[in-house]
Backbone:
């Protein structure tokens, strides 16, 4: 049955062979994974330019530095109002403007996503993100030096970007059951790292032509992918004539009555099932069809994982927004590398993150313990960050290896919680497996995480003036707190495994 809130996919009119029986359920599942992958990768590609241009906009390496002399260029003049002594503070405030509006918008986006056409809502978010990413870049050609302009653009852009995540997770949750969800979503969630890599390479590649281009091209990319999503994305299997795998299908009362009359031999059984469905619908009309914000918070596991993600995302987004700046301002083997090289080199962290997401998903599926897997990655990330800070400057190979390892361990739990865990919690048995609450639960978890994501880059901007050791200490403390929130759930998972073994 087709959801009343979802409009017909336009591409079905243009390409009738996309309909069953010409195309199977597996084909459409793969198509959905590809389209949502491209959609969120483009979101992240357009989110990456601010980190790439930081070293161009902000305070420069001192011109009297012998280490920097060979790498100073015309782009090392800075850009008011980010080039003064408190330039890193201003850059951190720009990150805060974007990420705070993103986190606030996430709660509202998830709430709306369970009530309206997810495909159109997603496309709306992609178009707005693309336009305002380009508007930020226009500041270069218009010679804008007003902090309020950049902050205002980032606030609006953050609101549009917040639409993306609840939508894509809800759509993928509609198409896939819980079997091997950790592995599937671990692979799928590499879109975050792939988007960061694309954004870094594109923004770094055109940086020498003016930092405005670093925003213009990723903005165009989001819009183009948005058009593709509008044409081809189906929100749920019912739109294509399939049943939802692993989900309870909501039945109309009229249809239930027809089934009861027609299937005479199983009349009593069908009547019981219909009465149960009607009772469930009447008791939860407001919560299952579109679960309330507070009701979603009270679901088991939602709050601990949300607060864990607060600290996990604080760490991940500090690297997302400040790693190219850190690489540019930290000599490797006694040499400061260029803006372009620093931006491209930072992609090693994202490559590690892609592997980390897949590995965390695979391990959590194998041991069937999401919290235990997350804590394992969090604990191992602490020595990884310490080693990167101490030994990352020794040589380029050492820097690359330790950056890859740090990305793998930092992004593993972040990826797992925002995908498989959110989908598990959003379709748990207390709601009858109903996926209508998935966008709301996803938004709560990622929205709470995004508050941490907003705080991390801001604190990094302030703490970096006191030395990078202070920044890394902040990250390690955040990791410890992230692990503490999952201890109780991890104990429960371990006890369940021990009891099963008896």
Residues:
């Amino acid at each position: 049955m087709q959801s009343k809130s979802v409009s017909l996919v336009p591409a079905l009119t243009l390409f009738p062979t996309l309909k069953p029986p010409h195309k199977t359920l597996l084909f459409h599942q793969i198509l959905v994974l590809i389209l949502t992958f491209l959609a969120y990768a483009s979101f992240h590609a357009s989110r990456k330019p601010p980190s790439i241009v930081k070293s161009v906009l902000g305070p420069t390496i001192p011109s009297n530095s012998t280490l920097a002399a060979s790498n100073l260029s015309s782009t090392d003049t800075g850009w008011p109002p980010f080039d003064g002594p408190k330039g890193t503070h201003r850059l951190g405030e720009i990150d805060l403007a974007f990420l705070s509006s993103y986190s606030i918008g996430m709660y509202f986006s998830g709430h709306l996503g369970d009530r309206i056409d997810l495909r159109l809502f997603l496309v709306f978010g992609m178009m707005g993100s693309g336009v305002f990413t380009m508007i930020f870049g226009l500041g270069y050609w218009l010679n804008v030096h007003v902090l309020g302009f950049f902050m205002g653009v980032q606030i609006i852009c953050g609101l549009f970007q917040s639409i993306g995540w609840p939508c894509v997770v809800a759509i993928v949750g509609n198409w896939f059951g819980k079997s091997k969800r950790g592995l599937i979503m671990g692979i799928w969630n590499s879109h975050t790292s792939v988007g960061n890599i694309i954004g870094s390479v594109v923004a770094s590649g055109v940086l020498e032509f003016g930092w405005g281009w670093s925003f213009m091209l990723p903005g165009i990319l989001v819009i183009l992918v948005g058009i593709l999503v509008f044409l081809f994305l189906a929100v749920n299997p019912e739109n294509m004539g399939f049943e939802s795998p692993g989900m309870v299908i909501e039945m109309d009362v009229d249809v239930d009555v027809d089934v009861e009359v027609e299937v005479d031999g199983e009349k009593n059984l069908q009547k019981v099932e219909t009465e149960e469905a009607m009772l469930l619908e009447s008791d939860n009309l407001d919560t299952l069809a579109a679960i309330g914000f507070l009701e979603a918070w009270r679901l088991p596991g939602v709050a601990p994982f949300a607060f864990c993600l607060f600290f996990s995302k604080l760490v991940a987004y500090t690297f997302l927004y400040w790693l190219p700046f850190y690489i540019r301002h930290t000599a490797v083997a006694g040499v400061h590398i260029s803006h372009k090289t620093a931006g491209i080199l930072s992609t090693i962290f994202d490559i590690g993150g892609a592997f980390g997401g897949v590995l965390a998903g695979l391990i959590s599926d194998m041991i069937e313990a999401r919290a235990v897997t997350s804590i394992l990655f969090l604990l191992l990330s602490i020595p990884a960050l310490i080693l990167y800070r101490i030994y990352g400057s020794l040589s380029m190979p050492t820097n690359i290896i330790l950056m890859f390892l740090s990305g793998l361990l930092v992004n593993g739990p972040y990826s797992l919680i925002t995908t498989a865990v959110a989908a598990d919690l959003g379709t748990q048995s207390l709601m009858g497996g109903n996926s209508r609450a998935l966008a709301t639960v996803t938004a709560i978890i990622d929205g709470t995480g995004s508050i941490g994501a907003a705080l991390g880059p801001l604190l990094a901007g302030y703490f970096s003036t006191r030395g990078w050791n202070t920044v890394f200490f902040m990250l390690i403390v955040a990791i410890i707190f992230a692990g503490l929130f999952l201890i109780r759930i991890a104990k429960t998972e371990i006890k369940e495994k021990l009891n099963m073994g008896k």
Summary: The CA atoms of residues 15 and 458 lie 48 Å apart. The first helix runs from residue 11 to 14.
